[in-house]
Amino acid sequence: MSLTRIPGSQVPVLEATGLMSREWYRFLYNLFEFAGGGASVVTPTELQAEVDLLEAQVSGIATEVNTLETSVETLDTTVDSLQDQVDALENEDNLSALAPIAKPFDPSDALQQSQLAALANRLCCLEQQLQSLTLAPPVAAPASAVYDSLTLAPPRVATSEMNFGSFYDTTTQTAAATGTAYAITFDSSNTEAYGVYRGSTTSQIYITTPGVYNFQFSIQLDNTSGGDNLFWVWARINGTTDVPNSAFQIRLKGNNSEIICSSNLYLAMADTDYFELMFAVDDTGIQILAEPAVSPVPGIPSVILTVNQVSSPYGH
Fold this sequence. Notes:
The chain is of the alpha+beta class. It has 2 domains: about 1-155; about 165-310, Jelly Rolls (Sandwich), CATH 2.60.120. The chain has 4 helices and 14 strands. It has helices at about 20-35, 45-90, 105-130, 145-150; strands at about 165-170, 175, 180-185, 190, 195-200, 205, 210-225, 230-235, 240, 250-255, 260-270, 275-280, 285-290, 305-310. The strands form 2 sheets. Strands 1, 2, 4, 7, 11, 13 and 14 form a 7-stranded antiparallel beta sheet that branches. Strands 3, 5, 6, 8, 9, 10 and 12 form a 7-stranded antiparallel beta sheet that branches.
């Protein structure tokens, strides 16, 4: 069963360059995004089970149609047989005896007339049964009905040819130990995003299209232990590779010395790569600080990250 509305004759899977066409890629990505980028509780097996169930239902409908068609053929045969009997009776030489003419009563005439009336009545009933049957083939459900049953959406038209996303965190983050790398997490994302999403591990920001991306971040820091303390932040790809020359060092002096650390990095990313911001401290009194909204000031996230694709190997 096809889950797309894309006619193969209009939108080929591959472009002339040999790469997958943008419409098919975006559709397949939407399916992947529906499954939560690997984080959804809906597994591919469960999704396939829904499709298999729909196919079974369609198969059941087709079987019912075949049964109805067989019944119609049987009724047609019965009608033809009855019509032959009616024709034979009408061609009898003594059919005139059935006409309402004045003549002595003949039991054989009455019997023939009764048989003819019964056959005519039977023919009328069969014709009514034929008219009540739905002989038209079942109308195939439109692709939208299939999408609705799976809570999916067809490929959307992007508002931009480049991927983008924005993420932030509304909690204060701390380090449990000094000299240890920790990943900065993001508990929220803006609703407007395309091709960039947060993984089930909320420190991981996934990329769906290869290209060069601008990762821009701002972090609000606070020192609660006094003294001169150091904070470091850097980029890591796929959980194992620290990006060379991506680290920053911030020195915080004294208590309540809030400061903003911000910068941006241009990184070449491959399909399905994920980005993380890592940090470390030399004193656990350093916090990545979030503050609630206090009129007239809105809430202050502990960290804000924006991601924008700036180039693509596909020439978009």
